[in-house]
Design goal:
six-stranded mixed beta sheet, alpha/beta, 5 helices, Nucleotidyltransferase, domain 5
């Protein structure tokens, strides 16, 4: 069992072992106020969970991004072999606020990746859904069911999406680009 120490409460994690070789660690993210994450560690273990980045009552909106960067730094500190980050590339949002929040997370992720020399790649939503369910327009429940069928126990759709992104990266990219 692998334990990651994260800087913020609101974290939910699970662990799964995958029988494929890897010399490096890969991080997959479903960016948002509740960010789903999944990591393929160098020992072939998959850990996953969610992390909440909702600002507190008396905080400015930028605090979510400062906590996100601190969380990324902690993930790198606990997994120094981090070689690549894959994230869900969303092209259409239901609301303006969701689009702005996603854009903020993406900006911070890309700046963090550049700062640390870690490659990052967006994966289109349809590609992820097609890979995990066989259908590019599958709904959230179908993605959760498909991830569960592969031996994982996601707590919500955010974690399921992150696991699906990670499985796509492992299966189609050999983990790293």
């Amino acid at each position: 069992m692998v334990t990651l120490t994260l800087p913020e409460p609101g974290h939910n994690a699970s662990t799964q072992v995958v029988q494929q070789p890897s010399a490096t660690t890969i991080l997959a993210l479903d960016l948002g106020t509740t960010t789903g994450w999944a990591m393929w560690l160098a020992d072939r273990t998959i850990v996953s969970g969610t992390m909440a980045f909702r600002p507190g009552r008396y905080e400015g909106g930028g605090m979510r991004y400062l906590r996100f960067r601190a969380w990324l730094d902690e993930m790198l500190r606990t997994s120094p072999t981090l070689a690549a980050v894959y994230f869900e590339e969303v092209r259409r949002h239901v609301g303006t606020d969701a689009a702005h929040i996603y854009g903020g997370f993406l900006a911070h992720l890309s700046a963090w990746g550049e700062q640390h020399g870690i490659p990052y790649q967006g994966v289109p939503v349809g590609t992820i859904k097609r890979h995990i369910t066989g259908k590019g327009n599958a709904d959230k429940q179908a993605v959760i069911a498909a991830v569960t069928t592969r031996g994982h126990a996601p707590s919500d759709d955010n974690e399921a999406d992150a696991i699906a992104i990670l499985l796509w990266a492992i299966d189609s990219q050999g983990g790293v680009r």
